[in-house]
Amino acid sequence: MPERRIAILGAGPVGSTLGHKWARAGHTVAFGVKDPSSERAQSLRAHLGEHVLIGSPADALAMSDIAVLAVPGEVVEELVTTHAHLLDHKIVIEAANKLPHIQKTLSTKKWADHEPLTSLSTLQAHAPHAQVYRAFNSYGWEPFADPLYQGVQADLFYCGPEGEARTVVEQLITEVGLCPVRLGDVDQVEVVDDVLRLWVTLALLQGKGRDQVALKVLTR
Ligand SMILES: NC(=O)c1ccc[n+]([C@@H]2O[C@H](COP(=O)([O-])OP(=O)(O)OC[C@H]3O[C@@H](n4cnc5c(N)ncnc54)[C@H](OP(=O)(O)O)[C@@H]3O)[C@@H](O)[C@H]2O)c1
Q1: For residues 53 and 31, is the Cβ–Cβ distance under 8 A?
Q2: How far is Cα 131 from Cα 108, in angstroms, rounded to an integer?
Q3: Which of 98, 165, 184, 188 is deepest in the core (most CB within 10 A)?
Q4: Does ligand 1 come within 6 angstroms of the Cβ of 45?
Q5: d(CA 24, CA 8)
Q6: Which stretches make up the Pyrroline-5-carboxylate reductase catalytic N-terminal domain (predicted)?
């Protein structure tokens, strides 16, 4: 695949895991973070080298064609409204989940009652020409780091439009080491988010372990 220019907003476990894999696959990766001089940013620089940019969200978006949202869910809407002009016309992958009280949610087991996890409607309203995909949100980061389960490649469920952008997104999923499974266009976002609810039930509520569980569709 040709080299892509990817902005990853957020360099936490999700952003940094994806960034490592895509940098290794030969893409240009720019991280947009809150504090580019933080210890976390320094450590990422040390691992990935100076060719990877770590700057503000605006810096990262300005030099990319693809944007991955990997910041806390509660800051996505503010970031999207502030940088809407830089997100419009890009491929945007929303990995963020609006889970401000995950510990509380888990302890009360109120997954079914939870409000939407996605900021899709904000993205569509403020960046109407962006091609938006919901992906990399339905597991913990651990299956992104190590996607093989007893030699079997885990599936990664996602949704978003058909077309050239889909090919790009599927390639990025494949380069992480996961098998892409498209559930439909963005109207299927709740189905993708239900996969997260299922994964949390298995991995966290049932205690199977964050790095022990991922999903695979069986067909014949
Ligand atoms: N952790 C998981 O296993 C997992 C799995 C799937 C999806 N998710 C979702 O993916 C998102 C990222 O999760 P995470 O655990 O990797 O990281 P996180 O702790 O939610 O986010 C940390 C990153 O976001 C940046 N950030 C925070 N506020 C910002 C702002 N206003 N502007 C720019 N950058 C900002 C931080 O910058 P600094 O480095 O400067 O502080 C840091 O790099 C979340 O929405 C989460 O729900 C998480």
Answers
A1: yes
A2: 36
A3: 165
A4: no
A5: 15
A6: 5-97
* Ligand 1 and 143: CB distance under 6 A: no
Convert the chain into a string of H (helix), E (strand) and C (coil).
CCCCEEEEECCCHHHHHHHHHHHHCCCEEEEECCCCCCHHHHHHHHHHCCCCEEECHHHHHHCCCEEEECCCHHHHHHHHHHCHHHHCCCEEEECCCCCCCHHHHHHHCCCCCCCCCCCHHHHHHHCCCCEEEECCCCCCCHHHHCCEECCEECEEEEECCCCHHHHHHHHHHHHHCCEEEECCCHHHHHHHHHHHHHHHHHHHHCCCCCCCCCCCCCCC
Of all protein residues, the one whose alpha carbon is nearest to atom 5 of ligand 1 is 140
Domains and CATH numbers, the chain: 5-205 (3.40.50.720)
Question: Whole-angstrom Cα distance, residue 195 to residue 65?
Answer: 28
pLDDT in tens, the chain (220 residues): 679 999 999 999 999 999 999 999 999 999 999 999 999 998 998 988 877 899 999 999 999 999 999 999 999 999 999 999 999 999 999 999 998 555 555 655 566 566 899 999 999 999 999 999 999 999 999 999 999 999 999 999 999 999 999 999 999 999 999 999 999 999 999 999 999 999 999 999 999 999 999 999 999 9
Q: How far is the centre of ligand 1, averaged over its atoms, from the C-alpha of 9 (Å)?
A: 8
